[in-house]
Amino acid sequence: MKKLINDPDDVVDEMLDGMVAAHPDRLRRLSDTQVVVRTDAPLDEVGVVSGGGSGHEPTHAGYIGDGMLDGAAAGDVFSSPTADEFEALVDACDGGEGVLAVVKNYEGDVMNFETAIELAEMEGAEVATVVVNDDVAVEDSLYTSGRRGVCGTILVHKAAGAKAAEGADLADVQRVGQKVVDNVGTMGMALTSCVTPEKGEPTFDLGDEEIELGIGIHGEPGTERTGTMSADEVTDELTESVLADLDLDEDQEVLTIVNGMGGTPQMELFVVNRRLQELLDERGLDTWDAWVGDYMTSLDMAGCSITVCAVDDELKELLAAPADTPALTVR
Amino acid sequence: MKKLINDPDDVVDEMLDGMVAAHPDRLRRLSDTQVVVRTDAPLDEVGVVSGGGSGHEPTHAGYIGDGMLDGAAAGDVFSSPTADEFEALVDACDGGEGVLAVVKNYEGDVMNFETAIELAEMEGAEVATVVVNDDVAVEDSLYTSGRRGVCGTILVHKAAGAKAAEGADLADVQRVGQKVVDNVGTMGMALTSCVTPEKGEPTFDLGDEEIELGIGIHGEPGTERTGTMSADEVTDELTESVLADLDLDEDQEVLTIVNGMGGTPQMELFVVNRRLQELLDERGLDTWDAWVGDYMTSLDMAGCSITVCAVDDELKELLAAPADTPALTVR
Amino acid sequence: MSADGEAAVAAVERVAERLERERDYLTELDSAIGDADHGGNMARGWASAAEAVRELDDPDPATVAKATGRTLMSEVGGASGPLYGGSLVFASVELDDGLTPESAVAFAETYLEKVRDRGDASVGDQTMVDALVPLVHTFKKSIEVDGLPPVVALAKAVDAAERGAAFTVPIRARKGRASYLGWRSVGHKDPGATSTLFVAESLLETARD
Amino acid sequence: MSADGEAAVAAVERVAERLERERDYLTELDSAIGDADHGGNMARGWASAAEAVRELDDPDPATVAKATGRTLMSEVGGASGPLYGGSLVFASVELDDGLTPESAVAFAETYLEKVRDRGDASVGDQTMVDALVPLVHTFKKSIEVDGLPPVVALAKAVDAAERGAAFTVPIRARKGRASYLGWRSVGHKDPGATSTLFVAESLLETARD
Ligand SMILES: Nc1ncnc2c1ncn2[C@@H]1O[C@H](COP(=O)(O)OP(=O)(O)O)[C@@H](O)[C@H]1O
Ligand SMILES: Nc1ncnc2c1ncn2[C@@H]1O[C@H](COP(=O)(O)OP(=O)(O)O)[C@@H](O)[C@H]1O
Ligand SMILES: [Mg+2]
Ligand SMILES: [Mg+2]
Ligand SMILES: [Mg+2]
Ligand SMILES: [Mg+2]
After folding, report:
1. How far apart are CA B148 and CA B266, in angstroms?
2. Which residue in B53, B82, B138 is closest to C76 by CB distance?
3. What is the pTM of this model?
4. Are A152 and A134 in contact (CB under 8 A)?
5. Same domain for A203 and A178?
6. Among candidates D163, D191, D162, which has minimal Cα distance to D176?
7. What ipTM was predicted for this assembly?
8. Strands B286-293 and A224-227
9. In angstroms, what separates the C-alpha of A136 from chain B's closest C-alpha?
10. Which of B277, D51, D112, D124 has a beta carbon 3.0–4.6 Å from A21's, enabling a disulfide?
11. Is residue B31 a contact partner of residue A256, using CB atoms and an 8 Å limit?
């Protein structure tokens, strides 16, 4: 499979350098790490940090900037950063007011972040955590390691970052992050497999007449493999799954995201958004804001995910607050 | 080839509805057309409009908003809008101060826009044109229909839109648009062919070990088919072609764009940007700003283009001026 | 409806059917050196034109030509829309006083002139002009010099257009998207010249009926 | 360098070689039910560990185990990094007073306990725990109850781990990425259980030398 890369072993390193080269006034890479922080970190407010495997660009470092993240640790492609890297991240973003770590619910991420937090706390840092688990495709029960964190994570970054920018304390920043987690659901699908730089071949085989529903963002197989469907049918499937999970009251205001997996052109995402908004309307829900784009990708996978987040006045204020990051600007 | 679409015949129509549904407060679709304008068009200033075939999203309608375009006409996939549509667009964006039409140099676009302008002028409108032809892959001579307009178009939208927002007159808005055209060059390449909804198969065959240099944004074959190369080698090829064309003085300040063709993940674009910045540095050029992302795509084609634009104080001011559009926000 | 008007409507329908059949072939030609849409552009445009002319009451050849041109202009984006459509609208006035061998020649000449004006292409640039010039020249000479009956003249013109379309293969494009390819355009048949030939063939079939 | 220290370094090197050879296979297993990186994670991590332990002056088994664990922790992201690495660091203290049959058992038990603590998995959850539990239990029983020589005990333990890895195939995952699959995880061999078996086999080969 052809890719614009040099050596697969260098891809994360070179990508991070390329990101910093695009935003030298905003981003700084901690030397000898895969951690990127804002140039002026730490600020005099609660630090908000995130991280995880690479291959989900613009997640994570694309969301560093005013009103969102202070820094992010990048693991290798689809692999959680190590505890060392998370620790360096927390340390660089701790201005004395404490740090909120936004962690996606994967055992690797959670275990490495936990280890890092223990280490940082031994050094006197105050760290709180929000674990994002918005993927409704996965059963959240004793029989799984819990739901995965996927595209809803962006909204956690946004809300927590906005709260921190207001000068709120750590507990309050954590509270709003958790509020997003409690009100958001996502479900994804794939038309094609992603291809990791390391493997150079599709992670899974999907026939020309097949699609995968409930796909994860690491090429983990989904919940169901079915025949191809129209965009409207796909949208209906994903949306119904998310709404069944959220169980919203009529007239509830929501923010929606139609997220591209990396290989799907915007044209198709807008076709999906058209049906999504029609469907929410039929269901008596009230779209307060609708985002369409590549927010949480899976390398070059073709496909999309749909996120619905119920919003109240507080979340609306935080999600609409100014943000100035490479990948998301709100003004 | 699998796509998130319904009927290929409806894809542009549904996409436009989906875009408007994502931005109902900003975008309005003229009924019975494929023309999208800002909700509050026409403004009391020079209107800046653009348009062309669909399949290049976020181009064109994604750049409608404060500080950029007032409206855009969408043709079918890769086909210029008709003269009728262009005329409706000019009409809707004419607030009495005249309209600048940004046209990419394709015979279809130029001929249809020209016809529309003749018709609009018969109705008393004042219309000026800037024809963008930044693609250095094409020989600009009597032996071709001239160079194609590609990713540099975004910078024309930005500069002209900013100038119009300042309240400048039509001649001045046209002048700055033309100034961008005179100072910008782009060259693209493809790892894979795009697949049009209509055809459902790759427009051209590219072997597993082949890439196409100098590709157009409609899947038009490029200037050269070669074996696969590393990201650094590709970057060197594209950049050298652009720089040879621009012939800049040492220490010239430039804005660069690493543009994704639609199917290439951001990770790879950043890898390319890393080498691009290194190369410009070696050449003694001074990067004033570096953009990385999907600005002018070709459906799901994998590949990228590199744009370099020489900037002076005036262009810097215009390119850094505030803009608030679905696809580009500057603050 | 006048017999000529009826024939004109039938001709447009015949063109539409033919181009629908040739859709994939034309798109294939356009894939090689363009953007893979000429088949769709033509099939869609002419199908709409057939619909439009069917709805005219009491059409005459001029009205049919004008309506066809207008529809192509507003249905077909791309280079072929204004070239085919705009030229037809303009040339249609030559038929205002009815269809005669002389008015047919004038129609053909005006159409050619308009295509050249708008597209600025000459013979040998690997465009539809390469089919049109031999078509129009042969038609005019067959009528005006050789005094042949119009159907025979048209048959000769179609042969000429066929050679014109074939002539696009070994030459380098200077206009249209194919020109971007430089020397790589050599060896490819021009889609617009080919569709022009198909249109002419359909007109001939109608004339023979 | 002590003979035991030398053997410990050789063991890490052997593991690294083996996991490099099994890289594609482990990644294939992880493709089916995870994210296709376990082979790379293990090969890369253990290669770095081999490098790190080679650079120790005068190593003993405890230092080698600790350095290996630290390297895995900082080189391998993902679930296997803290599970393999953190548990090794913690278990290494059991070897502080040297490598004896008793301290080897204590080391194995502590390692298992730490994996369970951190990952919260039980036998039957389709994880590395399914290979580890039979491995450690058999090793302990062979030494403490049957009084077998360590190499023989380890050979029995490897057989047990092999059955444990095979046992992951017919069951449903409850932990790790495979758990996302629900019932679709049934029928797949767990990558971590498989790599655990490979590590144990390499230790046995070293012990036999
Ligand atoms: N400048 C021109 N003059 C004459 N014919 C042209 C010109 N440019 C393009 N053409 C014709 O148009 C054809 C392509 O039409 P089409 O594919 O429908 O439009 P587009 O090139 O915009 O996609 C070419 O094959 C050629 O015959
Ligand atoms: N909670 C857990 N407890 C025990 N082992 C686990 C747990 N989660 C994952 N594993 C093991 O880790 C292996 C996967 O490792 P690896 O692929 O390197 O990490 P990741 O799953 O983060 O990509 C699984 O095959 C399983 O054996
Ligand atoms: Mg992993
Ligand atoms: Mg076209
Ligand atoms: Mg074409
Ligand atoms: Mg894995």
Report:
1. 25
2. B82
3. 0.87
4. yes
5. no
6. D191
7. 0.82
8. unpaired
9. 21
10. B277
11. no
